[in-house]
């Protein structure tokens, strides 16, 4: 069975400092992995995805994530946080093309001025 | 990507009543999904809705409580039946385009 663990329920950073949101997965298949962001009172927006191509994936708004099979990790990073990055972030694994998504519990990112 | 809209965006309902949520997408898609996000929680898949077949429900969700329609390739509805306060959640629909799912803005439901 597939699963996702987000290692931090809440992360707080200062504006301009790096962001690291940690995610570990468990999968029997070669997984597809995603990061979604949910701003307050908004829907889910796709940040980036890994689908067995390059292991370093670049997404929108300066975010990127690296797929590390040996560590079963897919951590999300950004070099410099912006106030507008404050939101809930979900790490997600897919059971296959167009298949069921398994969501992590989410990490709330706070950005201090 | 896909542009997905949901109606209503939010509602406040009395217990024992039912609410039907609509999901419209701007292109034809085979697979549509319905999720529930309870307060402060992550998303849980309710069911998968493919056009021309019965919806497939996940463990813990039943058709009598969450009937789904999928009349064509751009539209689906989810009904939350005989509501109780525990049904207060955000309900989101999504569509699969290749390996990626795109989500609607969600319907915020409060049951009193």
Q: Percent range for helical residues of chain A?
A: under 10%
Please report which band the strand proportion of chain B falls in: under 5%, 5-15%, 15-25%, 25-35%, 35-45% or over 45%. over 45%
**Beta-strand level of the residues of chain A, as a percent range?**
over 45%
Please name the CATH topology of chain B.
Answer: Immunoglobulin-like
* Rg of Cα set of chain B: 13 Å
CATH class of chain B: Mainly Beta
Helix count, DSSP H or I runs of 4 or more residues of chain A? 0
Q: For the report, how would you describe the main beta sheet of chain B?
A: 7 strands, mixed
Global geometry of chain B: globular
**SSE string of chain B, helices as H and strands as E:** EEEEEEEEEEE
- Corresponding CATH superfamily of chain B: Immunoglobulins
- The number of strands of chain A is 12
Task: Please report the total strand number of chain B as a whole number.
Answer: 11
| Overall tally of structural domains of chain B | 1
Please characterize this protein's 3D structure:
- The complex is a heterodimer of chains A (113) and B (112).
- By secondary structure, chain A is mainly β.
- Chain A has a domain at 22-56.
- Chain A has strands at 3-6, 10-14, 19-21, 23-26, 32-38, 44-50, 56-58, 64-68, 73-78, 87-94, 101-103, 107-112.
- In chain A, the strands form 3 sheets. In chain A, strands 2, 5, 6, 10, 11 and 12 form a 6-stranded mixed β-sheet that branches. Chain A has a 4-stranded antiparallel β-sheet with strand order 3-9-8-7, with no helix packed on it. Chain A has a two-stranded antiparallel sheet with strand order 1-4.
- Chain A is globular and about 40 Å long.
- The mean pLDDT of chain A is 92.
- In chain B, β4 (31-37) and β5 form a beta hairpin.
- In chain B, 0% of the residues lie in helices and 54% in strands.
- Chain B has strands at residues 4-7, 10-13, 19-25, 31-37, 43-50, 56-57, 68-72, 75-80, 89-97, 100-103, 107-111.
- Chain B has a single domain (4-103), classed as Sandwich (Immunoglobulin-like).
- The relative contact order of chain B is 0.34.
- Chain B has no helices and 11 strands.
- With 112 residues, chain B is mostly beta strands.
- In chain B, the strands form 2 sheets. In chain B, strands 2, 4, 5, 6, 9, 10 and 11 form a 7-stranded mixed β-sheet that branches.
- The chains are: A mainly beta (113), B mainly beta (112).
- Chain A binds chain B through residues 32, 34, 36, 42-46, 49, 51, 90, 94, 97-101, 103-106, and chain B through 1, 30-31, 33, 41-45, 48, 92, 94, 96, 98-106.
């Amino acid at each position: 069975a597939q699963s996702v663990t987000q290692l931090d329920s809440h992360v707080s950073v200062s504006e301009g400092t790096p962001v690291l949101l940690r995610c570990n997965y468990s999968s029997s298949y070669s997984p597809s992995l995603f990061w979604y962001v949910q701003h307050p009172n908004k829907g889910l927006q796709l940040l980036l995805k890994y689908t067995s191509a390059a292991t370093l994936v670049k997404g929108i708004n300066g975010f990127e994530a690296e797929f590390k099979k040996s560590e079963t990790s897919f951590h999300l990073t950004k070099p410099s946080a912006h106030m507008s990055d404050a939101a809930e972030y979900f790490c997600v694994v897919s059971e296959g093309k167009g298949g069921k998504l398994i969501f992590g519990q989410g990490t709330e990112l706070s950005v201090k001025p | 990507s896909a542009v997905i809209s949901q109606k209503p965006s939010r509602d406040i309902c009395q217990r024992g009543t039912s609410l039907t949520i609509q999901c419209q997408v701007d292109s034809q898609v085979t697979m549509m999904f319905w999720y529930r996000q309870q307060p402060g929680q992550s998303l849980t898949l309710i069911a998968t809705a493919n056009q021309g077949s019965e919806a497939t429900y996940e463990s813990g969700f039943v058709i009598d409580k969450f009937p789904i329609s999928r009349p064509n390739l751009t539209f689906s509805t989810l009904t939350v039946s005989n509501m109780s306060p525990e049904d207060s959640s955000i309900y989101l629909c999504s569509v699969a385009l290749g390996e990626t799912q795109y989500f609607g803005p969600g319907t915020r439901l409060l049951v009193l």
